[in-house]
Amino acid sequence: MLSLNTNYYGIQTNEMNVQKLIIDIAVLAAGGGITVAIAYALIKNDIQTYFKLRFQGQQKEGQGVLLSLRLQAYERLILFVERINPANLLLRLHQPGISPQDLQALVLTELRAEYQHNITQQLYIEASTWDVVTKLKEDTVAMLNNGMKSLPANAAGVDLSRNILQHMAQMKDNPYELTLALIKKDIHQLF
Question: Which of 4, 93, 157, 175 is most exposed by smallest CB count within 10 Å?
């Protein structure tokens, strides 16, 4: 008769060893799990602090990028206001012997191009400031068109420029300077 612990050839089996190995593995796994749980409990606050600081750092970095974009947008709007100011615009676009109709068309094309070039800046600035800038552009177009209406039939482009600049000189408050002051005020509120 063969014993339960031996096989057909009389060699002792590892049945007992396998059971002991499984028990040892279970004890080690339980001990490892308990060790990891205790370690986590001890460093849980440090881990949370690390991720919180990392998130805040990313948030501050994102705020820095946004601030940079906003400042660039305000910078571009200042340039836009200066470029559409009739004192600068007419001087830049005037050509000797140009007709008032050609000057008007040239100015309107330039105004539209400048506005379209800067239209995305509204994403980064105050909505009320963008509204003022848009109104300033529309008022510039209206001033140009009104200047054309009062010209005699044989007028030259220089007469249109003179008409518009005289109209601006009669204004109590320069709308271009007021718009620039508003933009600068918005910039100062960022800091």
Answer: 4
